[in-house]
Structures are given as C-alpha cells and as structure tokens.
Amino acid sequence: MVRGVGTRVLEVDDRPSTLGALRASGWQSRTIKDEIRENAVARIRAGEDLFPGVMGYEDTVVPQLEHAVLAGHDVVLLGERGQAKTRIIRSLTNLLDEWMPIVAGSEINDDPFEPISKYAKDLVAEHGDDTEIGWVHREDRFGEKLATPDTSIADLIGEVDPIKVAEGRYLSDELTLHYGLVPRTNRGVFAINELPDLAERIQVGLLNVLEERDVQVRGYKVRLPVDVMLVASANPEDYTNRGRMITPLKDRFGAQIRTHYPLEVSTEIEIADQEARIPDDGLDTLIPDYMKELIANFSHVARGSSHVNQRSGVSVRLTVSNLETLVAAATRRALRLGDDQVVPRVSDLDALIASTAGKIEIESLDEDRDGEVIDHLFRTAILTTFKERVSPEGVRQVVDAFESDMMVSAGDDVPAADYVELLASEPSFAGPVAELLGDVDSPAAIASAMEFILEGLHLSKRLNKDAIGTRSSYRGRG
What we know:
Elements: E1 2-3, E2 9-10, H1 19-25, H2 32-45, H3 61-71, E3 75-78, H4 85-91, E4 99-103, H5 118-127, E5 133-137, E6 142-146, H6 153-156, E7 158-160, H7 162-166, E8 177-179, H8 181-184, E9 188-193, H9 200-203, H10 207-210, E10 215-216, E11 223-224, E12 228-234, H11 236-242, H12 247-252, E13 255-258, H13 265-275, H14 289-303, H15 316-337, H16 352-357, H17 370-389, H18 392-402, E14 407-411, H19 416-425, H20 430-437, H21 443-459, E15 464-468, E16 471-475
Parallel strand pairs: 3-12, 3-13, 6-9, 9-12
Antiparallel strand pairs: 1-2, 4-5, 7-8, 10-11, 14-16, 15-16
C-alpha cells in the first residue's frame, strides 16, 4: 500500500509513475519523524504493539520508546550485550509507510516535491511533471553502521568519487560526490551500533545531522538538508571507559533509554522459545517446562553471581544457545540409545559447557576454575528450579525408599526403559513425576523427570551421589 493524504491509500498497482501523476494523486511530503509519529499514533490508537517481538520491556523500555517516537526524538539505547537493542532499532522500520516515492535514479531518496541533490534538481527542472518517479519499500529505508575505530567521514557523509572526476567532471561539480551512508538513508532511519567506538573526530561529523539536520561534505560548498531519524546503541562500559560519546553529541540526542535483561524467568523462557532454532527434522522432540526453566534460571543465577563479570553482562543469547545445545545433546543421546522421543535430561547439561564458556566472563585469578564456577552455577539453577517445581511432600516417600538401601543409576547412557521400570517398581516416584509432567507419560519424558528428581534431591542434601564419568549413582544418606 502507498500512503496518501489523510486516510487516502493508493493500491500498489496504482502507484503514480510521474511527478505530475503523483501530484494529482494527492500525495503529500512529510518528514521522516512526522511519518513515524503519525503511523505510531494510528497503531497505538488501534491497540497494536509498536515493537512486536520485543519482550520484557512492556512497562519499562517500551513506554520510553513510545515517548521518544511521539516527541520526534533521536534516540540512543544504552545497555549491555544481548538486550535486544538492535532488534528494537530495526523494528522502527515497521512505523514507516510501506512505499515511498522518490525521484527515479536518485542515490539519496530525493523527495519528488523537495529534491536536495543536484541530480534530482536538474532532472525535475528539465522534465517537470514528466519526471519519472520510483518507489522505495520501507525495508530499504534503513541504514546501519557498526562503529569501528577505522570508520571515516567518507563512510558516513561522503567523499569525492575519483571515477566521476576521471570521466571529465570538474572537482567543483557536485555530481562528483560519492554519498556516504547517512545521505543514502535520507528520509529513513539510520542506526549506529556501539557509537562510543566511533573516533571522536568522526562523532563531530554527526553534530550537524542531529541539530541542523544537514551534512557538509569536505572540500565542497554544499549542504544537503538530509532528513533522517538517528538511532544509536552503546554498551554502558564502553560508554564511560573504553570509548566515550562526546558531550555535544550526547546533548543532541533527544532521548537516552536504558535497556535491561529480562526481569522475570518466564520472560526469559518466552524469548528463548521465540529465538531458539530447534530443528524440525521429523524427530519427536519434547522440551519439558522445568528444563526450559532450569536453562533460564542458569542465566539469572549467573547475572547475580560475584564470580561472573557483570560489567560484561550475561546475554539472553546465552539462554538461547544453551537451549539449542541442550536439545542437540538430547538428540544425540536419543539416537545412540534408540529412544523414540527426544527429551532433554539433567545428564545432558554437561554439553552446555561449550555453549556457556564463551558467553560469560569468569572473575577468577585461576583460569582452571572456569569449569568449576559454571558447574556451581548449574547446580544452583537445578536446585532453584527443583524447589519451585517439586513440593517437599511429594518427594518425602522417595527419600524414605532410599533409606532401605535402594540405589539408582543415571546418566546419558541409561535407556529410557530403565527409568520406566524403576517407576513401576518404586511407586513413590509417581507423585513427583506427575507434578513435573502432568498427563505426559512417554518413556523419554519419564526418564527426564526421574533424573531431575534424583539430582534435585541430591543438591538439597537428601540423597548422596557418586559420579564416575557420565554415570551417576544415587543412594540414601544413611
């Protein structure tokens, strides 16, 4: 659809192809911020989410973002890694009109009614109402640059194009310019990720973009009044130490919004469910809720641990990667054992060392303790989940059964059928298994629940555990 005047909407097939036809259609120019604001107003009035897919910010970050959008502000998002800053920035394109008219062939999305480049001005002056119109989709109105120390003014603003000079044009000719990313995102949203990593002298080049709303190209008496919404992201640690945002640039951003990690475990689980890539390859895969909760609890425990560098942060990507790895480990085990269903168990958690080690920074003088710290965090997460999921009354009979010299072996080499036999011979497990699984009664699910119960009882100091390799034996404490 093509946005027109008021509620007038043009069908895609009816898009005007000339300047005269565009004028006759009633289409009117708007600044990028007015366009975003009007579309945001319509979506808020209709009760729609402005930032779909962004979870956990409904009462904190999203209201601030809505304020910034309605106020027409440029925004800097400040937060640790893995806090959906990039997702938020990219979702701003949803607030743009689906299609936007430009002077056909323009490199900087010239407004047909108010062209700013020499190319477009000359074209309109020559052809008038017969000037050809092109249409740009909202997805092509987003520009992005990862700030790096080697980023130059030419990258962002522009520079002389030696090829155009070689073609015979004079250096004073504006047509010799090669436009940078900011002008090429004219009438769109431009994002700079990790802004403090941008050299201070390059940050100066953005001052005019944010205040005077133009860019000046070195060596030319040309000012391009570009129309962009500028959005930046920054890590708090970089923001104050490794790099910094110069004060005049900070002053020009209308809003600085602090993001955060999910405050609730349930939100972390929702995000992991949304983002995790679980293969749909014909295998019957079941991920019990308590295993998802265990994975999410691990990230929350890590965020509160003195052994983990909190300045670096514990990204939500850790939860997503751990969930994917857990399913992969369960799949490998099920295939090797010949189980009919893939259901993660506690014994599969050893595989998560690989997906965890690179995503958290351990605060330890002894590098060899990294594995111990991660193992301790997982034990804490298991115990936390066990206490939330299994009632003390439900496992009392299980503990009593172990007092009669019962011993149970568990591990990734134990088939699901062995756990089903244990459940049949020792009915004391029936209650807590039902608490965890509800109506699910597949052998693989029962095996997962049994291992979780055994490990939970051990960590709550109600059972002893002897571990040899991947095999564990649980026995009473008497």
